[in-house]
Amino acid sequence: MKNTLAERLATFLAAYQPFSEIPFEELVPVAATLQIRTLEKNQILFKVDDPLHPFFYIVASGAINLSVVADAEETLLNRCETGEILGLRPFFAKNNYMMTAKAREESIVYGIPIDTFRPLLLTNSKVLDFLLQSFASTAPRNSLSTMGKSGLVNDTVRGPEGSTELQYLQSLSYDKKPLFVQASDTVQAVAQQMTDNLKQSAVILHNNMLLGVVTEHDLSSKIATGRLPLTAACQLIASKNYVFVPENTSLAEAQLSIIRHNAPLLLVSADGTETTAITGVIHLSDLISAQANNPGLLIKEIKKALSVSELKDLREKMTDFIQLAIEKKVPLSHVCAITGEVNMALIKRCIDLAILDYGSPPCRFAFLSTGSQGRKEQLLKTDQDHFLVYEDVAIDRVTAVREYFLRLSKRTTQFLSDIGYSECPNKHMANNLNWCKSFSDWIQQYSDWTSKPGLKNQENPGIFFDFELAAGEAKIEESLWEHVMSVVPKNKKFLAYLANEAIKRPPALGFFSKFNLEEDGEYKDLFDIKNRAILTYVEIARVISLSREIKGSTNTYSRFKQLAMLEPKHADVYQVASEAFLMLLKIRTNEGYKSGSDAAYIATDELSKSDRERLKSAILPLKELEEIVKSKFQLTFFS
Questions:
Q1: pLDDT number for residue 143
Q2: pLDDT class for 129, splitting at 50, 70, 90?
């Protein structure tokens, strides 16, 4: 008799890396041994200094926060959502956990026994590479010399498509003019050349053949100790403990090479082999220097910034990372998650600077991002979307409190504009009195939207159902979500309204699958990729997710992935939609960096033939999605 539960669990695992690399028949026995754990909100899965568990984990539903305490401050490093794995430390290290994993909301995690899973690593190199890259994606706390000795600070979260740290897409600065010496040169002569040229190493050649590398460590351990005289030939102290890597190696890839081969340095060549000329040397010090630009330190710099100009410079660093990520074909879901966290840090720091100007807030509040930032989909410097909720106060304080938060919001909005985020043309910002109000007023606002959908002259409120806390009290955000989830999923009329708004957007393709271009105005003959394609996916994912009471993520890609699990009948459509949505984001982002704009409108005739075909392919799933929406919400209320 088949173990149907094990097969269902194996089907879930197979949707995510690295499990997707494992044959299904090998996954089923692993799934049969899973430990299923239900965590209440704020319940800890493991904490700093806990002994290692015999499991690593994958999030089945909900969300798990990973945090550390540094400088007496708890810092959220990452959030693990459905399909993301965490707690890989027992695979690669012997010391206790160095992060805390805590449920952000009611969650289910599957514990995968390491002893059961480990044999699969021996037969599947892709799975091993995935886990190694994930574990290597966070830098050591002190020195890179501790790598390979359980020195990595990583309890690891890994996204469904890639590592969660920008080190995996971060380029390296290294010595691109190596010092070459001959095998017959004396140690003294080589040491003098290294000193004169400020080099940490010298590459030894004989008839253009590589014989080895002399490092400062070799000089100190083999010459300074008296083992060999200064007159000895340098080849006698040469080390052959090095690894070749290609010229475009990233920080994390370099770390990974050092871990796997226990090598003190890396030699760079065009193709990453010794058959082509050596063009550089990467030392441990290069990797240490590169840590200054990793996401954790970038966010730390943001937290300490004292001016908007500093914040603008830090945002430009993120722009460089995003462009490099696209060049290196890093999965966009991964890049979106990282960029979202950095953007949130920028928003929070703008609010901090505004508070320095106006003094401490008179009561608790929550500044909430909406739109693409609220969904963690903002890769370009698009416009601002946010609102502010402050707690209810005594009636005699209402006016003063409202005026304070309006001033604070206006200053924050100006700071964000100075960084490069233009103001929302629809005024969906907290500096607008309509979107800066008390908790009770917001509860009433959501109740009005849901109870009286489609009122004349009322704009579509959908954007306000994609909010994410940028600064302030998490409890206010949570209470607001609780209200939303208490009134929306059961309100068929409102859901039908949102559904109708989603599918009534102008079609992207016309007859013979030709792009429907703008016929007049400023954007004549351009394609509106934002409104005709991207936002249709966004709004369809939103309304179906709200109807299914999906919490924890407002990201469109993640919403479709979760829907594929919840609705097997439409799983294939949702899976294709999730990838199609990322393709649209990628095309828009590429065009945005080329043109220096937000690329809401693109010139399809300037796309390559392959990109035009990709664009069309990414639009086609909308037709099936629209049919699902029409059927699911029985669109009769607003027809």
A1: 29
A2: low
